[in-house]
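lol ok so funny story. i was supposed to be doing the assay writeup but got distracted and ended up predicting the structure for this chain instead. priorities right. anyway since i did it might as well share w the group, maybe its usefull for someone
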Amino acid sequence: MTQPARDLEPASSARDLYGVELRRQRQLAGLSLDRLSDIVNYSKTHLYGVETGERLPLPPISEKLDVAFGTGELFQGLWGAVKREHTPRRFDHCLELEARAARIQEFGASVIPGLLQTPAYMRALFEEGERGRTAKEIDGLVAARLSRQEILRGDGAPDCWWILGEAALRQVVGGPTVMRDQLATLLPLATGLRTTIQVAPFALGACVLTSGTLILLTLPDNSTTMYQEGAGHGEIFDDRETVMRSVRDFDYMKACALSPRESVALIEAALESHEPCESPRI
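and the output, tada:
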């Protein structure tokens, strides 16, 4: 695990530049990946992924690396470039808050939220929604979104509550196999220690949140910011009136949606509905 999995291109990729600089600083300090893992409290696997450009260095790893190597704000600056490279600018601030949030609440009408997506589901969405991108660019987008899920692991993981529209379970993304794998990953999270998933069924009809995405991010200081996104646009709000209105809307959806146990049953039913069709015998 001492050699990069692929040739990095620091001149054209901020993510690759970050990986090259991390490896250089680590070697200058005479540290193994195991030792650096102990110092910054990130897994050896994650650090290796950042070095090889396969994972994104989501906060607070950049701050910890700067402290470990005594590099001022070098890695924090590089992270800013990486972030701009792989996420829409409108989502930048939301991404920063997400990485620091103590509580995340999200409603997704027709698409599984990014923090819950499997790599295959992500790729299928990007290949359709980002037409014209090269395979390498798609790889970068998948890696960026997948790296966000690091915040769900470890002792400092936020409390997460997702409400999914039934359409997100029924809409076939990437084919039946991809959908089955995607829905299977939701089941243990529906009633987890720090994760809850509810489904808003079709039978609910029109309701206060019927389209797009709503994300509520509550920081350790109890301040909450709201991010709302529709097709091709997104906007972030932190004024009290707008945020409180969105919090009430989300709470109302909790009351209207299926219970977590009932949601598990619906997810299981949707999973079975995505059985691949057998080829007709001749």
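The chain has a mean pLDDT of 88. The domain at 14-86 is CATH 1.10.260.40 (434 Repressor (Amino-terminal Domain)).
back to the writeup now i swear
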